[in-house]
Write a structure and sequence with these properties.
The complex is a heterodimer.
Chain A (H helix, E strand, L loop, with lengths): L1 H25 L6 H27 L4 E10 L10 E3 L5 E4 L5 E7 L3 E5 L6 E4 L4 E8 L9 E3 L5 E3 L7 E5 H5 L17 E5 L8 E5 L12 E4 L2 E2 L40 E7 L2 H4 L10 E6 L10 E13 L12 E2 L27 E2 L7 E6 L4 E8 L14 E13 L3 E13 L6 E14 L4 E14 L12 H7 L33 H6 L3 E17 L4 E22 L6 E27 L2 E23 L18 E2 L2 E18 L3 E12 L8 E12 H4 L6 E15 L11 E2 L6 E2 L3 E2 L7 E14 L4 E20 L8 E24 L3 E18 L8 E7 L4 E6 L6 E4 L11 E2 L13 E5 L4 E11 L2 E11 L2 E4 H8 L15 E2 L3 E3 L5 E3 L3 E2 L1 H8 L9 E3 L2 E12 L2 H7 L3 E15 L9 E4 L2 E4 L1 E2 L6 E11 L1
Parallel strand pairs in A: 1-7, 13-16, 18-19, 37-40, 45-51, 49-59
Antiparallel strand pairs in A: 1-4, 2-3, 2-5, 5-6, 8-9, 10-15, 11-12, 13-14, 15-16, 17-22, 17-60, 20-21, 22-23, 23-24, 24-25, 25-26, 26-27, 27-28, 28-29, 29-30, 29-31, 31-32, 32-33, 33-34, 34-38, 35-36, 38-39, 39-40, 40-41, 41-47, 42-43, 43-44, 44-46, 47-48, 48-55, 49-54, 50-53, 51-52, 55-56, 56-60, ...
Chain B lengths: L1 H24 L5 H4 L15 H23 L3 E3 L18 H23 L3 H22 L2 E2 L15 E2 L1 H19 L16 H18 L8 H10 L14 E5 L12 H5 L2 E3 L1 H10 L3 H5 L4 E4 L2 E4 L25 H4 L8 E6 L1 H14 L3 H17 L22 H11 L6 H9 L24 H6 L1 H11 L13
Antiparallel strand pairs in B: 1-5, 2-3, 4-8, 6-7
Helix pairs in contact in B: 3-4, 4-5, 5-6, 5-7, 6-7, 7-8, 7-13, 8-13, 13-14, 13-15, 14-15, 15-16
The chains are: A mainly beta, B mainly alpha.
């Protein structure tokens, strides 16, 4: 019997291999292979059932001893729960409980092994009953050999990984919290790029690892919380261009950032985050992980000696504006209007001084020189009766903003018994953002339980509830209803308070106060009445069962759902430029994703020193999204926001999107004497979004790891060295409904329109292939650690929507195509210059460089250029060309001669206009880096993180418009001289060049040289250096804590984004335009200020 | 013990059954069904394509008329306008991009309409498709010259680089098609779609079709071999076979009330009203005629006299001025917002596709050119009257033609000047007719580019150079170079 038991599993790997081969061969033949596959596996089932009988029969015949004891960490003496105890057959004898205690019964003389990932196994032989054994486990030789959670929740020792992975502890996330936990990753993970829209308190975030792989804009990493992917999809508020001023059409509105769900995770619940950057790391997650994955593990409960553990965390932080553009307050409103005496003058509507000059949004008016003019008088809501002093109001923009705050309080309870552990936490966050009447409130409740139902069956249940509400989130982009637009258009001679009454006397809800240009909406009206409210509820939960048949076989079964329901409302008042009769929209967005996984694992030492582990599993993924948009385009009664108040029937514009992916996957890990590790994975997906004959695709990965310090005898200084090498392929599907021709929905009743995008019935899955190699080296007894990665990824067959020449009858087409290469290097250096009992200094440097190159455009694309994204009415485009990159910003530039001098028009003195657009620069940074230092002296810890990027450009709409309007300090040049002479040359009739001498009036000069379409003059180096985090923490000493009868108290003062060095003229170069639900890098299109945060954090553990 | 093991065995079997069930359900049979879009339709009736096409074209070209034709034809100019701009004949490379994109965009609705008319056996819609195609393609070819036509719109049939047809081929084809449509319209079929233009009155579609036929034949008047005037005389002589517009209600004028989805052409009233001064040439011509349209089209100019703003009647700014605004000591007449974007949203405005007045002016020209002065006078007066009364609140004064400047004087220039006024807000028609006839005689200034010669076409869309380089080159060479001063075929 024993022999049978041993032999059978040994056959398994070959069976598995065979089945895999079959998979590859069969995938076009049958879609139901999976079934056959599992039928094959019914065979071992009988074996499992039989095995225990055999064991129990044998046990009764031998003499046994019973051992009781505890397992402790050799380093700190802490009790260790969850230590697996096995015999020399690798049979599990037991597991230590929450208090680190165990009781086992073994045959006399058996070698017993105490195993815990990250620790050196302790081996003992018992020949008599013992009741007070103390086992001490020492952590593995290298500090790098920590346990990381990899794909599918499999815990691995870092040593065994053949790919790059960065682990971030929960403390780093919750130490200096911001509204979005992902902020805390900035500067800490080499290769990570976080792009945010600068759009308010719940900033949507684009998380990107190792560069953009795809031309289609889907380049975001997958986020997995406790094994279940998180919905990070954003649903557009309905407007898909951040540049929308006055554009016609049904919804002339602005994009509103309702968040993409990433911010809904409570930072206090995070135990750890493993960032799996490479394809090999994430291959098992399939398509969605092709851009890497964030594996988030939440905290769970543990058994306690007495009572329950209580952790109270209280965090208060204050935000204000980090940086302002350089506004000028020397000249007021006007457009170089001169009176009869030839002097610049001002007149709010026509007066004795001259015709009206008070409607323009430009500040090319007279200097603030102590004189007086007829100006706006808020009391009469018109021209004042007398001339009043002509003075600047330096608080005309800044005064609109306030100091915001965030209060975050959480209580977590945890505890348990031998069989049941649980952790429950509740966190309340209240944010009042820096813009008046904006902010949000969030409650996150989570429960994490684990139940040892029987010796072999363990159930884990997790449940998480988030409710996020906001009365108002700011609109973004460049459009009348956005505050960004107001800030651009506000004039220096205008007191902000003049707008405060919102409505004209006696004309509430009918006539707003906007006394100057009627393009500007009243900012107080925007903030208080043109609101965008949100009530978002996110529920996610999963139930996981782990059945351990014996020490070799384990079955995991998990089913989880994640759903988010957003109820949004957008209100627009009467008398606005875009909505003379108001507007009201209800938008309900329902996301629902379910994942069901099964994973059967086997592990054994198949040869001496050769350990083998294999898993095979399946996943069923189903995703539904429904958007319900009910819109009243025009209202009957002003100020009443109900659909029944629609001027004509309210319109329903709904959308349903469904997709499913079914997958089978398997992996094999070999480990040779803990020196060489080899992982092989394979996955086959069937996706509903691809045409029937192309909807099945297989992709494998191989990764290996070599512990050089174990294999070779290395010099003393090298305490640890490891080399990694991996290759992986990841397949990917597309969005639903792209294979059949559909007609466009028309806003008109009984109408439809021809499609603008050509369908494709032959779409193929996208594939990316990557190589990665890296090394971990520790020197001087781990005082210096280096982690270096080199990678190369080629993505082919991407499903793209590419523009077509409109004369073909379509504007775009779905095609497979393109080949993009990303290659780069990531470095992380950690050093401990000082490490004494009282004082330690730890220093970490992260640095990453990625080079993105387009090797081929699709063969179906006839053009040599392909537009990926556009904003600013076509001013800025990201255009792909062979040899270029997916971040190339194109637009009009200046025309230069051979010497690089700008050529001006002889007659006008204005810059000559080029006939075609050109590449101006690249939105991607050349490199990014972070430098963190932590000093610990006794109970004090001080940490400082500086990070930044070098290179990359950002186009600034704010700069363009404020320059055109004479609002920025640099536009002071030339005012007193009667104009500007462009620095450059003019072309003579004979083709030679002579210096430009034509003086151009300032308003014309700045409007033309910095015209919107001039991408060159409005783009700026996006390099920056930020003081990202600074934190000082005091941990109450043991003596005090004991007197207080608590187990820990820490107080910390911290700051985030405290200072910045950058040449960018608007608020923050770390920005991007929000185009509906997609974020376009390299373009600032009406930015809101970014914040500086000061906070106090108090943590109390009872 | 045995019992426990059996129990366990059952459990294991249960778990595996679940797994197997899960595996079994992974058959992908329903995947194709799942990937059928529940939101959009995959078939279309021909009548459902009319409204988006009509609204889209009329709205786009209402704005284009204002943005482009107004400046070129000195109807109105941007204010302030310090340098360059279209009124100084600064027509940029991309000036025609929107026209190119929009015309081809709506032509694909026409393509679908024609196909659906066959599918649903509703030939009347084939005729509508022809009428709309001629209307849209006419604007395209008059703006650009040779364009992709016979091979255009066929990406589904793998034609991704359509050849450019010559303007002559296009005109020949469209005129033939309009004749065919005229015959189809005479059938008994009843139209039953959503029809923003004519609410399914097929007789009006037929009149639009034939009026358009007249416009297209007239456009070729310089091409002697086409015998435009002869052909037009024949059409005019046979109103039974060729019914055309006989009053404003039959005209192709789209009524839009500003309530979504029938939004006015501009996103904001300000975009129409602000930053524009009426052109002195246009205003003065109306002033000479003491024309009632002045009050409909524009505000009065004003000047500060003794610290007070005082009205000075209708007065515009000179197109192509130096850029120095101090030369004008008055606030000019500006567009009357209520004409196209009434402050009382819900009020209907007119967007003109083809007016009845245009037909009368064609008749007047044909009569004049064929020597029938009496008929020319009748048509001229009918044309002027129609052009005034087609606007909301447009009332024809009884004594209009008493004015020496208005009374018919038998000159071609007078007909064309009034036609110029009648084509106000009608896409690029003023520009096309100016290129065909040289009327009205527009003043030149030294600040205009190209020595004051008006640009005669748009450059092709930049995309064409990228996507269809070979055919682009053939066309560009054939027309005499892809630049704004090249004359299209009918103009030569």
């Amino acid at each position: 019997m024993l022999q049978k038991k041993k032999r059978k599993p040994n056959n398994k790997p070959s069976m598995m291999n065979k089945t895999f081969t079959n998979q590859m061969r069969l995938r076009k033949v049958s879609k139901c292979v999976l079934f056959a596959f599992f039928v094959t596996f019914m065979n071992p089932l009988q074996m499992f059932a039989a095995a225990p009988i055999a064991v129990s029969g044998k046990m009764s015949q031998q003499e046994t001893v019973t051992i009781k004891g505890t397992v402790k960490d050799a380093a700190n003496g802490q009790l260790m729960p969850g230590v697996t105890i096995t015999d020399n057959q690798k049979k599990v004898l037991g597991v230590t409980n929450g208090e680190g205690a165990f009781t086992i019964t073994v045959n006399k003389g058996t070698e017993v092994s105490f195993n815990m990932l990250g620790y050196v196994a302790a081996k003992m032989i018992f020949s008599e009953n013992q009741s007070n054994v103390e086992v001490k486990l020492a952590s593995s030789s290298s500090e790098l050999n920590e346990v990381v959670v990899t794909a599918l929740g499999i815990k691995r020792e870092a040593n065994s990984l053949g790919f790059g992975a960065t682990k971030i502890g929960g403390k780093e996330i919750s130490d200096a919290p911001s509204n979005n936990w992902s902020d805390a990753l900035k500067g800490k993970v080499p290769g990570l790029t976080l792009t945010q829209t600068g759009s308010g308190p719940i900033n949507s975030t684009r998380i990107n690892l190792r560069g953009d792989r795809s031309l289609s804009g889907n380049n975001e990493a997958l986020i997995v919380v406790d094994g279940v992917p998180l919905i990070t999809r954003a649903a557009s508020s309905g407007v898909n261009d951040a540049y929308g001023a006055g554009s016609s059409g049904a919804d002339k509105d602005i994009p509103v950032d309702f968040g993409n769900g990433i911010s809904d995770i409570n930072p206090d619940d995070i135990e750890s985050i493993t960032v799996l950057k490479g394809a090999a790391a994430a291959a098992l997650y399939g398509s969605r992980a092709q851009n890497g994955a964030f594996i988030i593990t939440t905290k769970s409960g543990s058994k306690r000696d007495k009572g329950i553990g209580v952790t109270v965390n209280s965090n208060s932080s204050f935000n204000d504006v980090l940086r302002w553009p350089d506004y000028q307050y020397e000249y007021g409103q006007g457009n170089l209007n001169k009176n009869k005496a030839g002097e610049l003058y001002y007149s709010y509507s026509a007066s004795a001084d001259g015709p009206n000059t008070g409607s323009t949004s430009s500040a090319w008016g007279p200097k603030f020189d102590g004189q007086s003019y007829f100006q706006y008088d808020p009391n009469v809501e018109g021209q004042g009766a007398t001339r009043t002093p002509w003075v600047p109001y330096k608080d005309n923009i800044k005064g609109f903003w306030r100091t915001g705050y965030t209060l975050q309080n959480s209580v977590a309870l945890d505890g348990g018994t031998d069989v049941f552990t649980a952790r429950a936490s509740i966190t309340h966050t209240k944010n009042e953002w820096i813009m008046p009447n904006t902010g949000f409130e969030r409650i996150v409740g989570s429960l994490n339980t684990s139940l040892q139902l029987s010796k072999k069956l363990k159930l884990n249940g997790k449940f998480n509830y988030t409710n996020k509400t906001s009365d108002n989130l700011p609109g973004t982009g460049y459009n009348g209803q956005s505050i960004a637009y107001f800030m651009i258009f506000q004039n220096p001679n205008v007191d902000l308070n003049w707008y405060a009454p919102r409505w004209k006397k006696g004309q509430e809800q009918l006539k707003q106060i906007h006394p100057y240009s009627s393009f500007i909406e009243n900012p107080f009206l925007i903030a208080n009445e043109m609101t965008n409210s949100l009530n978002s509820t996110n529920l996610d939960g999963n139930l996981q069962g782990v059945y351990t048949f014996n020490d070799r076989w384990e079955l995991m079964f998990r089913s989880g759902i994640n759903m988010r329901v957003d109820a949004r409302e957008q209100r627009r008042t009467f008398d606005t430029a875009n909505f003379p009769l108001g507007y009201y929209k209800q938008q309900d967005v329902n996301f629902m994703e379910s994942n069901t996984d099964a994973l059967l694992s086997y592990n054994n030492e198949i040869l001496p020193k050769l350990e083998f582990r294999a898993s095979i599993g399946g996943n069923l993924m189903s995703r539904d999204e429904k958007q319900i948009n009910s819109i009243a385009r025009g209202l009957l009664l002003p100020g009443v926001y109900k659909l029944s108040n629609a001027l004509t029937s309210a319109v329903a514009e709904n959308g349903i999107y469904k997709r499913k992916t079914h997958s089978v996957f398997g992996l094999m890990n070999f480990s040779w004497d803990k020196k060489i590790y080899l992982d092989i994975t394979g996955r086959n997906d069937w996706s509903s979004t691809l045409p029937e004959n192309n909807n099945s695709y297989f992709y494998p990965s191989v990764s290996s790891s070599y512990i050089l310090s174990e294999i070779f005898k290395l010099p003393e200084v090298i305490s640890f060295a490891k080399l990694r090498l991996s290759w992986a392929q990841i397949g990917s599907d597309t969005e639903p409904y792209r294979t059949i021709k559909y007609y466009g929905v028309s806003a008109f009743p009984g109408s439809s329109e021809a499609p603008s995008t050509l369908q494709n019935a032959d779409l193929k899955p996208e594939m990316s292939r990557s190589w990665e190699t890296g090394a971990n080296i520790s020197l001087f007894k781990n005082r210096i650690n280096a982690d270096v990665n080199l990678y190369l990824t080629n993505t082919t067959n991407q499903v793209l929507s590419v523009p077509l020449d409109i004369t073909t009858g379509f504007s775009s087409a779905f095609i497979n195509g393109g080949k993009i290469r990303n290659k780069g290097i990531e470095v992380m250096l950690t050093g401990k210059p000082v490490a004494t009992t009282d004082f330690t200094w730890t220093s970490t440097v992260t640095w990453a460089k990625n080079k993105n190159t387009i090797l081929e455009l699709s063969k179906d694309v006839l053009a040599s250029q392909q537009v990926i994204a556009q904003s600013g009415a076509g001013a800025a485009s990201i255009i792909a060309t062979v040899g270029g990159s997916t971040g190339d910003l194109w637009g009009y530039g200046l025309v230069r001669n051979d010497k690089g001098q700008v050529i001006f028009d002889k007659a006008t003195g204005l810059a000559t206009r080029p006939s075609d657009i050109q590449k101006i620069g690249n939105a991607y940074a050349d490199w990014r880096g972070g430098f963190q230092n932590e000093f610990r002296y006794k109970d004090f810890t001080l940490s400082v993180l500086i990070d930044g990027q070098y290179g990359g450009i950002v186009y600034s709409q704010t700069h363009h418009k404020m320059t055109e309007q004479g609002k920025l300090k640099h536009t002071l040049v030339g005012r007193e001289e009667g104009g500007v002479i462009g620095d450059g040359v003019v072309q003579n009739a004979d083709g030679t060049f002579s210096p430009n001498t034509t003086r151009v009036p300032v308003n014309t000069w700045y409007a033309d040289y910095y015209r919107r379409a001039n991408l060159e003059t409005n783009s700026f180096d996006a390099s920056f250096l930020k003081l990202r985090e600074a934190r000082i923490e005091y941990r109450l000493p043991k003596s005090v804590i004991n007197r207080l009868k608590v187990s820990g108290v820490t107080v910390a003062l911290y700051g985030r984004d405290l200072a910045m060095i950058s040449k960018f003229p608007a608020f923050d170069p770390e920005t991007a335009a929000l185009n509906g639900s997609t974020i376009m890098p390299g373009v600032e299109m009406g930015q809101l200020p970014s914040t500086r945060t000061f906070g106090l954090n108090l943590r109390l553990q009872l | 013990m045995a019992k426990k093991e059996i129990k366990m065995k059952k459990k294991i079997i249960a778990i595996f059954t679940l797994v197997s069930l899960m595996a079994a359900s992974s058959c992908t049979k329903n995947f194709e069904e799942l990937n059928v879009d529940p939101n959009r339709i995959d078939k279309v009736t021909p009548g459902s394509l009319i409204t988006p096409t009509i609204y889209g074209m009329s709205t786009y070209f209402t704005v284009r008329s204002y943005d482009f034709t107004w400046q070129l034809m000195q109807v109105g100019i941007p204010n302030p306008s310090v340098a360059l701009g279209i009124h100084r004949y600064d027509v940029q490379e991309g000036a025609g991009n929107g026209t190119w994109n929009n015309c081809y965009k709506y032509l694909r609705n026409v393509r679908e309409m024609e196909a659906a008319s066959v599918t649903y056996n509703q030939p009347a819609y084939k005729a509508v498709a022809i009428t709309l195609r001629a209307y849209i393609t006419g604007i395209l070819t008059d703006s650009f010259g040779d364009i992709p036509f016979s091979e255009a719109l066929q990406a589904e049939d793998k034609i991704t680089q359509p050849k450019f047809d010559t303007q002559e081929e296009i005109y020949t084809s469209l005129i033939k098609q309009l004749e065919e449509a005229n015959t189809i319209y005479s059938g008994t079929e009843v139209m039953s779609g959503n029809d923003l233009l004519y609410n399914n009155v097929k007789a009006n579609w037929r009149k639009f079709n034939n009026s358009l036929l007249m416009r297209m034949i007239l456009r070729l008047s310089k091409k002697a071999e086409f015998k435009s005037y002869e052909k037009l005389a024949a059409i005019i002589a046979d109103p039974v076979k060729y019914p055309v517009f006989t009053n404003n209600t039959e005209a192709a004028i789209v009524k839009v009330n500003g309530v979504a989805p029938y939004d006015y052409a501009w996103g904001r009233r300000q975009d129409y009203v602000n930053f524009t001064a009426m052109g002195s040439f246009f205003v003065d011509m109306l002033n000479d005629l003491e024309d009632p349209r002045r009050a409909l089209f524009m505000t009065k100019a004003s000047r500060i006299v003794n610290d007070k703003s005082e009205s000075i009647g209708y007065k515009g700014f000179t197109a192509g001025h130096s850029g120095d605004i101090t030369q004008f000591d008055f606030n000019p007449s500006t567009p009357n917002g209520d004409l196209m974007y009434p402050s009382a949203v819900g009020t209907f405005i007119n967007e003109i596709i083809m007016s009845y007045a245009e037909v009368e002016f064609i008749k007047a020209e044909v009569a004049l050119k064929t020597g029938d002065l009496a008929a020319a006078k009748i048509a001229y007066e009918k044309g002027v009257t129609a052009a005034v009364t087609q606007w909301p609140n447009g009332v024809m004064p009884a004594n209009y033609f008493v004015n020496q400047k208005a009374a018919f004087n038998g000159t071609f220039e007078q007909i064309m000047n009034q036609k110029y006024l009648a084509l106000f807000f009608c896409d690029y028609q003023q520009w096309f007719e100016y290129r065909r006839t040289g009327f009205p005689v527009l003043p030149k200034t030294e600040f205009m580019l190209h020595n004051g010669d008006m640009p005669t076409r748009f450059m092709y869309h930049n995309d064409v150079r990228r996507f269809n380089p070979a055919n682009y080159k053939i066309a560009a060479d054939r027309i005499g170079g892809d630049n704004v001063m090249t004359k299209v075929w009918w103009e030569k």
